[in-house]
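User: Before I run my own analysis I want an independent prediction to cross-check against. Here's the chain; please return only the structure tokens and, at the end, one sentence I can use as a sanity check.
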Amino acid sequence: MENLIDTLPQLSAYRPALIIVASLSLIALVQNFLTAPLAFASQEQTPGMPLQFDHSKLSFRAVRTYQNSAESFPAFLAAVLVAIVAGVSPLVLNVAAGVYLLARLLFWAFYYSGFGRVAGGPRTMAFVLCLLANILIAIAALAALF
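Assistant: Structure tokens:
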């Protein structure tokens, strides 16, 4: 059975962006899996109950990192898919998706480690870079549609 990229070779130029989407999906699933040992095994957090807010605890940061991934991924996925369907330049899409991935990796590293200030520090800067990359992709998709 052929895959869609083999059937529609013009999609092959978007392979890096699609690999990034699949990678981010896998990372979010792994983060979800890690909430059990990092947040709930320590009994600092209780499954199904409101999150106990304390940035100094890994249990809080692990759950919030996963939640942030789950909240951010749908907008990124939608923007990437619309950009591909609309025919956005593969260079623009692949670079913006790469920036998004790099910024997400930095965001996760900063959040898990507790590095920097809670607000306005390196984690915030990485998050803003993610948002800007995602906004660029969405604007490029919209521009290609008009």
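Sanity check: The chain has a mean pLDDT of 90.
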